[in-house]
Amino acid sequence: MKRLLTILLLALSCPIMMQAKADKQTVVFYVYLHCDACVDKVMKNIAFEKGVKDIVCSIEDQTVTVTYDAAKTDIPTLQKAFEKIGKPATTTPPDPAQKDAHDHDHDHEHHQHHHEH
């Protein structure tokens, strides 16, 4: 009887474990990143938010791609985390007419940064 109960419990827990892995989602945020210091600020803060599994920053594309556990966080919570560090994040691309509207008295490093937990 104990053996049957153990098998039944294992069978019931498998779908739950599989469902937890299915909660992993990815979102692309559009964030103004003009230098490596901006990227470092994002990497050192957002990467350690609860539920964040992976983060990739692109200065060239002005994006931060975040893979997260949807059971632990969501897009609005992540956006609040960006706001806390002074980097508002949207899920819609900025107006192309405003893309290069900021001051250009500095060099842009065009490469990607990647952080994985």
Please describe what this structure looks like:
By secondary structure, the protein is of the alpha+beta class. The protein has one domain (23-96, 106-116): Alpha-Beta Plaits. It has three helices and four strands. It has a four-stranded antiparallel beta sheet. A hairpin with a 4-residue loop joins β2 and β3. The chain is globular, with a radius of gyration of 19 Å. The model is unreliable at 4-9, 16-20 and 102-111 (pLDDT under 50).
Give the % helix. Answer: 25-40%
Order of helices and strands: HEHEEHE
What do we call the CATH topology?
Answer: Alpha-Beta Plaits
Calculate Rg over CA atoms: 19 Å
**What order do the strands of the largest sheet run in, or round the barrel if closed?**
1-3-2-4
Main CATH class: Alpha Beta
CATH architectural designation = 2-Layer Sandwich
Which consecutive residue ranges, at least 5 long each, have pLDDT under 50? 4-9, 16-20, 102-111
Total beta strand runs: 4
The structural class is: alpha+beta
How many discrete structural domains?
A: 1
